[in-house]
Every structure is written in C-alpha cells, then in structure tokens.
Amino acid sequence: MSATNKHLASPLAAQNGDFMTTPSPVSSLAAAPTTRRKMRREGPGSRLWRVLVWGAMIFFLVNVGLMIATVTMNSLATRWFGTPLPEGFTLHWYAQAWRDFQLADVLWVTVEVVGAVVLLSIALGVPAAYALARTQFPGKKLAMLVFLLPLMVPPVTYGIPMATVLYKVGLGGTLMGVILANLVPSLPFVILVMTPFIEQIDPNLEAAARIFGANTLKYFRHVLLPLLVPGILAAGLLVLVRTIGMFELTFFTAGPDTQTLVVALYYAVFSTGVRAPQSIDAMAMIYMAITLLWVLIALQFVSPTQLVSRVKEAPKGE
C-alpha cells in the first residue's frame, strides 16, 4: 500500500475502532488534579471517618430494631420466658389494653389536642412571623430571644408555674388547659420556622400587588399564602410530632378525662395495681403505630428536602 493510501486509511481505521488512539497530553494534565483531589479525599482519615459514621448508624439501627422487635414480640406472645422466641402468638393483649386503658377515649382526646394545637399555632404564628420578617422595631432581637426561651429550656422549668396558673383560673384538668399548655412551645416554634421562609420572598411582590389594587388581606391570601404553603406544611408537621410526644406539659395540666396517649401510657406503667407487661407493651406498640401513621400521612403533603428550594423558586415563577 502506498503512503497516500496509508494516510487515507488511517481515519477510516480510527472510525472503525481498528486501533487505539493515544490520549492527548492536555487531557492527561486536566485529569491529573482531579485524580489528586480524589486521592486526597480517599485518604486514611476519610476512610476512618466513613467507617465511624457507618458504625454509629449501624449501632443505632440495631439497638432501635432490637428494642422494637422485643416489645412487638412480647405484646404478641402468649408466653415468653427463658426461650429465644415466644411459645405462641395472640392479639389478646391488644384487646385487653384497648379495653382496660380506654384507648378509644384517649385517642380521641389526643386527636383533639394535636389538631387544635397545630391549627392555632399556624393561625397565630404565620401572621406573627410575617410581622417579624417585614418590620424593624426596637427590641426585635429581644423578642426573638423570648420566642426561643420555651424551646431552649426544659418544659419542667415553666410547666409547673404555668400549671399552677391554669388551675387557679379554672382551666387545669380541662381540654382547653391542655391545648393552651401545648401552645406555649408550639407557637414560638412556628414563628421561628416561618420567619426565614417569609424573608426569602421578594418584598416587591407586595408592592406590585398594591399597584394592582390588592389590599393586605387579598395580598396575603392570593400571593403570600401560596408561596408559604411549603413552610406551613413543614411547621405543621413539626408541631404535630412535637405535640404527640409532649409529656411534661400535658402531664401537669391534664385531668382524668383529658389525657393524651403518651400520658396514658405513663400512668399504665407507673400507676398502682398489677398489670400484665404484655398489655403495657401492646399499648406502647399502639402509641408507636399511631404516631408513625400520622407522620406518614403528613409527609404525603410535604417533602422536607425540597422546602427551601420551593420557596426560593416560587417568586421567579410569578
């Protein structure tokens, strides 16, 4: 083959993959810093840190899994003593717990308290957060610090004086007293969650709405509220979980007919009398299952990983 033919055949051979091309020096130099950075990231310290993180996660998950598995099997066991597994399984203890602890009434009270606290916290907290985000006034930082106090200090420190006041005014032991007690930490929580969401929304939207004749109520309902939906859902979800597990304030202010599920579970464990441990474990499983169910339902309406991005992108869409 002549030199000309060899020259013409080389591109065809390259297209057909008949020979390997040599990487250019430029691409090799460009890949070198990336390789060095990757080697630095994959050093002994990085590998040790990754092993520690995975070890801690596995240790936590194994412990939680073993506790839940033990409580679950004990609540379903006919008899479990000295053997790796129960001798048999039954739902008798769940029926007994439902009957003995009057769980139907307790669950209804829990739904009333949680629903009222979430709705009131949102209804009062969102306008308050809007006022804090849009206005500047002397003592604003002090006001934010006051809102932080119920979240920073243990509930026992202010729960006992608050319960004393509620009993003096006749609200102790009532459903309204339990709701008011749970509002004390929940309302500041909503304000602190919603204030950054409102600060991220462009204030020029309000000016544009004013130009087109919208008053404050119309602007809030048609412009601001749709942009705040992700934040409202996130705040409502967090308040819901917090209220379900709030023991101290509910314990101090609840009466015999206004106990939530977590307080009823405490009385089932520590009150006088002899109770089967399987029945108490069954009540604990009911509490965990209902809490998980409420959280899963709430997560159908909000994705925590996308909350900030939605608020940032919303004004652009307008």
Provide key terms for this protein.
318 residues; mainly alpha; MetI-like fold; 14 helices; globular; disordered N terminus; disordered C terminus; ABC transporter permease; membrane; transmembrane helix
Write the layout of secondary structure elements.
Blueprint: H1 3-16, H2 25-41, H3 44-76, H4 92-100, H5 103-134, H6 140-152, H7 155-168, H8 175-199, H9 204-211, H10 216-245, H11 248-253, H12 261-270, H13 277-299, H14 307-317
GO biological process, one term: transmembrane transport
InterPro entries: MetI-like, MetI-like_sf
Family: Belongs to the binding-protein-dependent transport system permease family.
Explain the overall architecture.
Helix content is 77%, strand content 0%. Helix 3 packs across helix 13 (277-299), helix 8 crosses helix 10 (216-245) and helix 9 (204-211) packs across helix 10 (216-245). With 318 residues, the protein is mainly alpha-helical. The chain folds into 2 domains: 23-90, no CATH class; 94-317, Orthogonal Bundle (MetI-like fold), CATH 1.10.3720.10. It contains 14 helices and no strands. The N and C termini lie far apart (69 Å). Mean pLDDT is 79; it is low at 2-21, 26-32 and 306-318.
Summarize the structure.
It contains 14 helices and no strands. It is mostly helical and 318 residues long.
CATH topology grouping of the largest domain: MetI-like fold
Strand segment tally? 0
Per CATH, the superfamily of the largest domain is MetI-like
The average pLDDT score comes to: 79
Instruction: List low-confidence stretches.
Output: 2-21, 26-32, 306-318
Distance between the termini: 69 Å
Largest sheet: none
Helical stretch tally: 14
User: What is the N-to-C succession of helices and strands?
Assistant: HHHHHHHHHHHHHH
- Could you say how many structural domains there are in total? 2
Structural class: mainly alpha
User: What is the C-alpha radius of gyration, as a whole number of Å?
Assistant: 30 Å
Class of the largest domain in CATH?
A: Mainly Alpha
CATH architecture name of the largest domain: Orthogonal Bundle
Give the overall shape: globular
Organism: Pandoraea terrigena
InterPro entries: MetI-like (IPR000515), MetI-like_sf (IPR035906)
Membrane topology: Multi-pass membrane protein
Main location: membrane
